[in-house]
Amino acid sequence: MIRKELKAQYRNERLAARDAIPPDERIEKALAMLVHAGDAIDLQPGEVVSGFLPIRSEVDIRPLMARLRERGARLCVPVILDKRTIVFRELVPGAPLVSSGFGTAGPGPEAAVLDPQIMLVPLSAFDSTGHRIGYGAGYYDRAIDQLHQKGLNPRLIGIAFDCQEVPSVPAEPHDVRLDAILTESGLNFVSEVIG
Questions:
Q1: Residue 25 annotated in ligand binding
Q2: Would you write out the chain's pLDDT as a tens digit for each of its 195 residues?
Q3: Is 171 annotated in some ligand binding site?
Q4: What CATH superfamily classification does 3-193 receive?
Q5: pTM of the prediction?
Q6: Is 134 annotated as a binding residue?
């Protein structure tokens, strides 16, 4: 099976497994992630953290994002500008959210555009070496590449449920490895996972 087909198969299987988690159980798993990572993510006051507002059966990381804000983070979320580009707009309490494509919502064009230093990245699937499968549109790959072109190297923390792990993601040359993976079982730094 070729790489793209295997990625598509993993994406479909792992998203189906995620969809099968009952909503109340997803909430409990998200709260476990808050306990594991709320104070464990290395964060300096004023650092910019990109999170995401959940769509479909994604992990709801809003409690985790609120904890990171309490610790001094500036929060932002991705907003789709066109079929190839996302930007990260600052998420401030009370600011209105607008539809921002791909079923997501985010701050409107009046919000500041920020360059994240820490990125909480939603996943379809992942492996223990830090390789990820996204949703197939490549938005995060391009956004990370644009940050690298600016000389920035954000820390990447993949966010998923345990059931989304696969034995091995068929990595491609453009794929950027995650620094850590957060699931309901804990925050695992890739360097620790692969020794």
A1: no
A2: 588 899 999 999 999 999 999 999 999 999 999 999 999 999 999 999 999 999 999 999 999 999 999 999 999 999 988 877 899 999 999 999 998 777 788 999 999 999 999 999 999 999 999 999 998 888 899 999 999 999 999 999 999 999 999 999 998 777 789 999 999 999 999 864 433
A3: no
A4: NagB/RpiA/CoA transferase-like (3.40.50.10420)
A5: 0.94
A6: yes
140 is in an annotated binding site: yes
Say if CB 42 and CB 9 are below 8 A apart: no
7 annotated to bind ligand: yes
Write out the H or E segment, with its range, that includes residue 189.
strand 186-189
User: Which of 12, 11, 104 is closest to 56 using CA atoms?
Assistant: 104
DSSP assignment string, 58-96: ----HHHHHHHHHTTPEEEEEEE-SSS-EEEEE--TT--
Q: Where are the domains of the chain?
A: 3-193
Is the CB of residue 34 less than 8 Å from the CB of residue 64? yes
Torsion of CA 32, 35, 41, 43, to 10 degrees: 130
